[in-house]
Amino acid sequence: PDTVRIRPGGETAVLRYTGQVLRGRADALRPSASYLGPTLELRRGERVRIEFRNRLADPSIIHWHGMIVPEAADGHPRFAVGPGGEYVYEFTVTNPAGTYLYHPHPHGLTGAQVYRGLAGLLIVREAQERAWGLPGPEHELSLVIQDRRLAGDNRLEFKRMMMDDMNGVLGDTVLVNGVAAAAFRVAPRPWRLRLVNASNARIYKLAWSDDRPMRVIASGNGLLSAAEGIQTRPYVVLAPFERIELLEDFGTRRPGSEVALVSREFASLGMMGGMMGGGMMGRGMEDMMRGMMGPGQGEALPVARFDVGTQARTAGEELRLPPAPRSPREGHELHTRLAFRHMRGFLDGRRFKMEAVADDERLPLDEGTVWTFANDGGPMAMAHPMHIHGVRFRVLERSTGDAPADLREGLVDAGFKDTFLIFPGERVRLLVAPTEPGLFMYHCHNLEHEDGGMMRNCRFE
Ligand code: C2O
Ligand code: CU
Ligand code: CU
User: Fold this and answer.
1) Where is the Plastocyanin-like domain (predicted)?
2) CATH of domain 137-308
């Protein structure tokens, strides 16, 4: 196994993706400085061929999260290959400019493999991005945010207790691009920041330490449209495998100053969150639990520091976001109820079976399906980051008043998404219009919920 330096003073054993360009553009793979895989930089419209070789001791397969690719290139767990096995992907990049990810998807092992290092960024570029007034690649930063538990000897600690299957594995240290206490030096000018949550289970409430508003230009799968415009939020909520892009003008801050990206506290989610601080346990008991388990869902955590340069300020160009594509006709309707009981998640009372797809999991091609997700309320209810493969969808409606008050203002439902957070008791309606035929899937992207079977196939036909 490879070792990398995650925090000063020691090496940590990890798994990692490595790659090389066999032919074509050498700049299509940007090596990463950490355990993260090389950043795949693809251009919209280009044809890609990727050969995957599994050198792990376990089965694996790669999924291109958020990308709309043919069924055979999607990395569904049924395509997992054993140690020494190979899998060849071929697809044309049809997704618009934006921030995507790749990660393993073998059933039952996804959480462990991602946790130990297997994940990478996938960026789609378009020629027009410059014309839209976006900062160029030299003025953008990607922040892949992950929480990890590092033992005293710097070993990554994965599951330690039963709780981990229920809440998902939460860490006590936030890593950005694979390192703890990340810091960036930024020129005083507008930057495009790609914020990526590649954590197994942690939901972040991201804010600037000086409480400046955040200007969101992308909420998931591609940029927002001109009609939606830049969305301004006091903070943004980023669930596992969601991405958000900000346009941040560091030139509006004092030269030589520093500002931090932090995850603010929220009390509304998570079992322990509800019990701790809720007066259900005494203070001493709470402290003991915290010491044992590390920070639970919703605890305040530092993420990264930005040092603003002292050079002269550069003004930005005027941003013109791209026009919105036409909306599909709404024909079909689907309904899925989410429930969590006996430590496991259920989708309409069902759990994952490798090839199974029910009649109410079929979506017509090239037409709009209104897919309603309803999350059970009740004492064991949890928030779930739900994801659908092979499509980008719109959030049509979120039941009002059900999102917790301390997170509500940080949701960005505008634009196209492939992953969305649904809170206990909430109902969210999506408009989904698949274009690729075949067997895809939908699942909770809390990786422990996913590995525990909160995942189902769906067929586009
Ligand atoms: Cu990001 Cu089914 O995965
Ligand atoms: Cu996916
Ligand atoms: Cu879940």
Assistant:
1) 34-128, 360-457
2) 2.60.40.420
Q: Yes or no: say if 385 and 417 are a contact pair by the CB < 8 Å rule.
A: no
Please identify every residue whose CB atom is under 5 Å from ligand 3, which is an ion: 345, 384, 444, 446, 449
Pick the atom of ligand 1 nearest to 419's CA.
1
Express each pLDDT in 345-371 by its tens digit: 999 999 999 999 999 999 999 999 999
Q: What is the three-class DSSP state of 229? A: coil
Ligand 1 centre distance from Cα of residue 433 (Å): 18
Domain spanning 2-126: which superfamily? Cupredoxins -  blue copper proteins (2.60.40.420)
Are the C-beta atoms of 337 and 374 separated by less than 8 Å? yes
Sheet holding 120-125, edge to edge: 29-30, 39-43, 120-125, 98-104, 62-65
Q: Give me ligand 1 centre to Cα 72, in Å.
A: 15
Q: Which residues sit with their C-beta closer than 6 Å to ligand 1?
A: 63, 65, 103, 105, 241, 387, 389, 441, 443, 445
**Among all ligands shown, which has an atom nearest to the Cα of 240?**
1
CA of 370 to the centre of ligand 1 (A): 21
ipTM at complex level: 0.99
Measured between alpha carbons, how far is 456 from 269 in angstroms, rounded to an integer?
Answer: 25
Where exactly does CATH 2.60.40.420 map onto the chain?
2-126, 137-308, 330-460
Tally of CB atoms within 10 A around 308: 21
Closest among 426, 433, 344, 352 to 380, alpha carbons compared: 344
User: Smallest Cα–Cα separation from 398: which of 365, 379, 425, 359?
Assistant: 425
- Among left, alpha and beta (phi > 0; psi -120 to 50; other), residue 35 is alpha
The pLDDT of residue 290? 67
Q: Using an 8 Å Cβ cutoff, are 314 and 251 in contact?
A: yes
Exposed / middle / buried, residue 228 (Cβ in 10 Å: 0-12, 13-18, 19+): middle
Question: Which uninterrupted H or E stretch holds 205?
Answer: strand 204-208
Query: Which ligand 1 atom is nearest residue 441's CA?
Result: 2
Q: What is the CATH number of domain 330-460?
A: 2.60.40.420
Percent of the chain with pLDDT strictly greater than 70: 95
Q: What's this model's pTM, rounded to 2 decimal places?
A: 0.96
